[in-house]
Amino acid sequence: MKKINILSVSLTMMVFSSLNVSAQIKLSDIFKKVTGKQGSTTAATGTPSTFEIGQGIKEALQIGVSAGADRLSVKDGFLGNLAVKILMPPEAQKVEKTLRSIGLNKLCDNVIVSLNRAAEDAATEAKPIFISAIKQMTLTDATNILLGSKDAATAYFKRVTTAQLMQKFSPIVTTSLNKVNATKYYSDLTTQYNRLPLVRPVNTNLTEYVTQKAIDGLFVEVAKEELKIRGNLSSRSTTLLQKVFGYADRKKN
Questions:
Q1: How far apart are the C-alpha atoms of 235 and 225, rounded to whole Å?
Q2: Which helix (H) or strand (E) holds 15?
Q3: How many Å separate Cα 162 from the centre of its chain?
Q4: What distance in Å separates the CA atoms of residue 253 and residue 238, rounded to the nearest whole number?
Q5: What distance in Å separates the CA atoms of residue 202 and residue 199, rounded to the nearest whole number?
Q6: Beta-carbon neighbour count of residue 61 at 10 Å?
Q7: Domain of life of the organism in this record (predicted)?
């Protein structure tokens, strides 16, 4: 009988001991989860170092300019986007109006389509130029962009990439315009118009015009991406981006 009682007591103690260990493990797991979340929050809301600011800005801009350039470098990237669609040069819009009035809509449409196709071809070369500018960015540049105006990054890109973009885009635009006969079509249009009495001659350099409009369109898309990363919390997809841009939000408020 004593043996049975001793065995019963032993089993009871073993059960309570097991339950105690299990409870401790569960409490430990809960504690780890809570402290882990707190650590994550702290990492995302603390004050970033200068190095972190540099890395965060570069990461954000690389995502942004890649998305912007990719959107414009596909078919209808320019033509289908009213914000950047390239129309006839301002000085040639009278020519277009006159030709459309006599039923030459198709000819005018062909010219406009070809201008936008040339810009779309050129846009494929934009991303490497932007990425190179990001890699060369100094920590001072990055801090100024982070704490600057809402278009500080776009202004930076305009300053450091415009000359390279012009140089890179120009021959591509020329080749593309010639490939689709846009240069010939446009030359025919302006020649006919310039023969009319009492009109102001139109002498547009089509390559320069399309190249500049292509670059302007790129900066429109870059500006959109910059506004998105600054104002849309869901666009801050990493802890580093949350920390860097959260810091900027606090500094500006």
A1: 10
A2: helix 2-45
A3: 17
A4: 22
A5: 9
A6: 25
A7: Bacteria
The dihedral sign for the CA sequence 88, 89, 90, 93: negative
* Cα Rg of the chain, angstroms: 31
Question: Residues 243, 237, 153, 136: is their CA dihedral positive or negative?
Answer: positive
Q: How far apart are CA 203 and CA 210, in angstroms?
A: 14
Please tell me the distance from the alpha carbon of residue 89 to that of residue 182, in angstroms, as a whole number: 13
Task: For residues 183 and 206, give the distance between their C-alpha atoms in angstroms, rounded to a whole number.
Answer: 7
SS3 content of the chain, % helix, strand, coil (to 5): 80, 0, 20
Which H or E element spans position 174?
helix 152-179
Residue with tokens 């490497």: 128
Closest CA to 182 of 102, 98, 120, 244: 120
Structure tokens at 1: 């009988």
Model confidence at 21, pLDDT cuts 50, 70, 90, reads very low
- Over residues 54-71, the pLDDT tens digits come to 999 999 999 889 999 999
Contacts of 50 (CB under 8 A, 6+ apart): 139, 143
Question: 203-246, pLDDT tens digit by residue?
Answer: 678 899 999 999 999 999 999 988 988 888 887 878 888 899 88
